[in-house]
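Table S2 (text version). Query chain:
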Amino acid sequence: MKFFIQAGAMLGLLGVALGAFGAHALRTMLDANGRAATFETAVRYQFYHAVALVLVGVLMQLLAGNPEAVKLLGWSGNSFLIGTLIFSGSLYVLCFTGITWLGAITPIGGVALIIGWALLFWAFM
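Corresponding structure-token output:
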């Protein structure tokens, strides 16, 4: 339970740092390479799912008496974390290296994020 709150807090912290770094120190490079929008998408999705991870951790604590819901929330949190690392991570690497085949990996992270939201929904069925 605590893990997802900590992971969400860390993703949020890194999202602020990367967003600021991209907006200031990297803006010229990202604009020159046509990757500013890609970088912003990576940061935005990282933030969304940082909040989702914190929410999962809080919900796990609130529903501690419902083991089935807690199990589903755990799977949801894992999907959010893995999905964020793959989705945003592949976009960051693409922005910094220009390795375009990484665009083929990004949808795998997106699918994991979708699964995380579906599991969150299912936990409350």
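Notes on Table S2: The longest helix spans residues 67-97. Residues 2-123 form one domain.
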